[in-house]
């Protein structure tokens, strides 16, 4: 489903275009002035949620403007690190790219932003660390845990030193490090770190905190990889109830927990129960994030796997969009 672009974003886009039309690029002073004005105009945009697919068409336009502007800012030596609201916008853009299958673009943009902020703000500045975190998250989403892991580990060390081991940001960094271990197939080490992080998050932040639920969901995934499917199912069901209560039944997090439940049911041989969930999840992912989003495609693939296990191969082909020749 394509969601409409927020009218505020459309207006800001038009304003930015007009700023560059009325300031000639031949005059460096005019271009620098246009860059500062465009930066400040985009910084004034409302805080749209980058994790909500309904905002993604708006972020697609914002991202195009930001990519162009970052190139000009570098050319005329106008910092992207000021004002603070522009830094916040750039972090939201990187979150959008992570969520909306744009990890490759996110890596390239985060590298530029992090390098400049490290120079201008310092390597331990909270915003520099956020940029590093977004870089590592996009690397992880792109399947490059080897590069992401040391970045997350460094963030964890800095936050532990400056904020303490029990600070929410430190716990999130530990959770992200464990995710890299899991992607690198070191499931036992990932399980140990997720288990400890989930326990501390629950004690310090409460069961319904987003980092607690993230750690618990990833802990369930590790249990599944270690063959402990019944324990994994219990955790997935628990975190699904929490996400549904906190984020709504159709949030990406809630649907992700349902995916975990269905996957675990399949591993336990409960193919029909898994099929029912995946058929529903695939439909809801498509409605929320679009037919071409990776989560929709993965849901359809898991549905086909369920159907094949049930001996319903023609329906499986249909779910995967496979057309067999009719001889």
Q: Supply the number of helical segments.
A: 15
Summarize the amount of helix as a percent range.
Answer: over 70%
Residue-averaged pLDDT? 93
Strands, total number: 0
User: Unreliable runs, pLDDT <50, ≥5 residues?
Assistant: none
Strand proportion: under 5%
Spell out the helices and strands N to C.
HHHHHHHHHHHHHHH
For the biggest sheet, the summary is:
none
CA-atom Rg in angstroms = 22 Å
Task: Report, as a whole number of angstroms, the end-to-end distance.
Answer: 36 Å
When the domains are counted, the total is: 2
Provide the structure class: mainly alpha
Which shape, going by the Cα principal axes? Answer: globular
Structure report:
The protein has 15 helices and no strands. 76% of the residues lie in helices and 0% in strands. The protein has 327 residues and is mainly alpha-helical. It has two domains: 142 residues; 95 residues, Tetratricopeptide repeat domain (Serine Threonine Protein Phosphatase 5, Tetratricopeptide repeat, Alpha Horseshoe), CATH 1.25.40.10. Helix 5 runs antiparallel to helix 6 and helix 8 packs parallel to helix 10.
List key phrases describing it.
single chain, 327 residues, mainly alpha, Serine Threonine Protein Phosphatase 5, Tetratricopeptide repeat, 2 domains, 76% helix
